[in-house]
Design brief:
With 385 residues, this protein is an all-alpha fold. It folds into two domains: 231 residues, Citrate Synthase, domain 1, CATH 1.10.580; 101 residues, Orthogonal Bundle (Cytochrome p450-Terp, domain 2), CATH 1.10.230.10. 52% of the residues lie in helices and 3% in strands. It has 15 helices and three strands. Strands 1-2-3 form a three-stranded antiparallel β-sheet. Strand 2 and strand 3 form a beta hairpin.
Length: 385
């Protein structure tokens, strides 16, 4: 039987929106790969975020020469105009860091607005944004703590720059730089179907400037249904406080139908592979006996209790359940967890932007199912009841 009405899938569930060769999420198997390489391998001790940048753009793991070149490209592009720095600092004092991020990136856009004639510059513009977004995160962090602006330094890697600008520390304990590299890589891409990456594709299809693409994607990520679960999970652990109380408190919350932040995923029906990587890092980086160790123990209790109660429904820890503990362990303030997510995911957004243009960049124009009134006669105001 045929019908004139198109089928409707709430939230576009299961509807392919593009073809992509960037990343693959295999929900039932619990696998995430970038260009065919597992997320576990891309976060090994020798791996850097610069390697991930080269991989997503080039399609292959870089050799030493290409990796050195990519490091130099990011260093050369992360400097911000002093006037932009001052504007971002002012905005950061008046609004949420994510809104400051969105405004700050939009301000990086050019005075003209006709990207189609400049599309040959898409790779340069993309890499420039990957570099500059991280600097914007650092500017916001310094402003929030009333520290003077101390911008990027020539000798620093991407992860080193972010750590110094955010924490204010000139040196970093063993493992902290690698942890930042891993956090950026873990959040770099997660297929084109997630809300913010889909947003980047839609805005790209209008032939918008790259800065507008990234700014709009940040807006999508600012919604708590997409970004922010790592913040919420750590705040939950802080609320619980004592690891000895964790099982009882989580049990009560589950009885009250409380949605545990960092637990469950729309795609994964098993444990999120990124969560396994985060736990590997947590075991190495969190100091025994510290407050962050207490939070991590609470997170482990949450995993145990919630998995026992919800695992048969395909709900397991995602990347955000444990990542807040790791962010805190390397000195990152809670309000900057999601902006760091932006610093990593910008790579995925702009790689998807480039792929969208390469596909022919047909503008997205889905249809709808109209449920309102049919054609009605108009009456003037004097005739209305």
């Amino acid at each position: 039987m045929t019908t004139d009405s198109p089928s409707y899938s709430p939230g576009l569930e299961g509807v392919p929106i593009c073809e992509s060769a960037l990343s693959l999420v295999e929900g039932e198997a619990g696998r995430l790969t970038y260009r065919g390489y597992s997320i576990e391998d891309l976060t090994l001790p020798e791996a850097t975020f610069e390697q991930t940048v080269a991989l997503l753009f080039d399609g292959e793991l870089p050799n030493e020469s290409r990796l050195s070149e990519m490091k130099n490209i990011l260093r050369e592009n992360r400097i911000l105009d002093p006037e932009i720095v001052e504007l971002i600092r002012q905005i950061a004092k008046k609004t949420h860091p994510m809104f400051a991020m969105q405004a700050g990136i939009a301000m990086l856009g050019p005075k003209d607005n006709d990207f189609e004639i400049k599309v040959g510059s898409i790779r340069q513009r993309s890499l420039s944004l990957v570099a500059k977004v991280a600097t914007v995160v650092g500017v916001i962090a310094q402003s929030l703590e009333d520290r003077p602006y101390e911008g990027p330094r020539e000798s620093e890697s991407h992860a080193e720059m972010l750590l110094r600008m955010i924490t204010g520390n000139e040196t970093h304990p063993d493992g902290h730089v690698h942890t930042m590299d891993s956090l950026l890589t873990l959040q770099a891409d997660h297929s084109a179907g997630n809300a913010s990456t889909f947003t980047s594709r839609v805005v790209t299809s209008t032939k918008a400037e790259p800065e507008a693409v990234v700014s709009s994607a940040i807006g999508a990520l600012s919604g708590p249904a997409h970004g922010g679960a790592n913040e919420a999970s750590l705040r939950l652990f802080i609320e619980i406080g004592d690891p000895d109380n964790a099982e009882q408190e989580i049990g009560k919350k589950l009885d009250d139908k409380f949605k545990i932040p960092g637990f469950g995923h729309r795609v994964y029906s098993v444990k999120d592979p990124r969560s396994k990587v985060i736990q590997r890092i947590a075991d190495q980086i969190i100091q025994a006996g510290s407050k962050n160790d207490d939070y991590y123990k609470i997170a482990l209790s949450v995993e145990s209790v919630a998995t026992e109660r919800l695992g048969d429904r395909g709900l397991f820890p995602n990347v955000d359940l444990f990542s807040g503990c790791v962010f805190a362990a390397i000195g990152i303030p809670i309000d900057l967890f999601t902006p760091i997510f932006v610093a990593g995911r910008t790579l995925g957004w702009v790689a998807n932007m480039e792929e969208q243009w390469a596909s022919g960049n047909r503008i997205y124009r889905p249809t709808q199912i109209y449920t309102g009134e049919a054609h009605r006669p108009y009456s003037n105001i004097a005739q209305r009841d």
